[in-house]
Amino acid sequence: GVQDDGAMLIPAAPTSVGWYRYGAAPGEARGNTVIAGHVATREDGPGALAPLRGAKPGMRVTVTTAEGAKHDYKVVGRETIVKKALPVDEIFARDGRPLLVLITCGGEYLPELRSHRDNIIVTAVPVR
Question: DSSP assignment of 27-78, as one string?
Fold first, then answer.
C-alpha cells in the first residue's frame, strides 16, 4: 500500500518485506512487481533484503506468495540511486513486460536523517 504522503508503505521490521499492491502481483503477465524492505536496523540486524548489495546478473530469486505459490526470477540488473532521484514512474510501471523490482536502502547512512542516502534497486525477469 501507500502512506498518506503517497510513498510506498514498508514494514518496520527488516525481516519483513512489503509488496506494492497497486502494481502487478508476482507472476502477472504485465507490469512491475515491486517489493521493498529495510536493509537493517540497529535492534534487529540485517534485513531480508540485505543480500541485494551483492546481487549480480544471472542470480536467481524466488518470490513466495502468502498462498505458497512460488515465482522464479533471474536478476538482470542492480543499481544504486540517490533516493531523491528515484525514477518512480519506471519503478512502479503497470504496463510492459513483467519485471520484479526489489528495493532496499544502500549507500552512506545519514544519522541526522536516520536513513541511508541511496536505494539499491535490483531488477529481475521471470524464469519460465
Answer: T-SSSEEEEE--SEETTTEE-TTGGGGG--TT-EEEEE-TT--EEEEEEEEE
Q: What's the pLDDT score for residue 13?
A: 87
HSE, side-chain direction, 13 A CA sphere, residue 94: 4
Sign of torsion, CA 68 93 21 107?
A: positive
pLDDT digits (tens, 9 = 90+) for 46-86: 899 999 999 999 999 999 998 999 999 999 999 999 988 88
User: Dmax over Cα atoms in the chain, in whole Å?
Assistant: 45
Give dist(CA 35, CA 85) in Å, integer. Answer: 19
CB neighbourhood size of 19 (10 A): 18
Query: How many of the other CB atoms lie within 10 Å of CB of 74?
Result: 14
pLDDT at 6 over 80: no
Amino acid identity of residue 63, one-letter, is: V
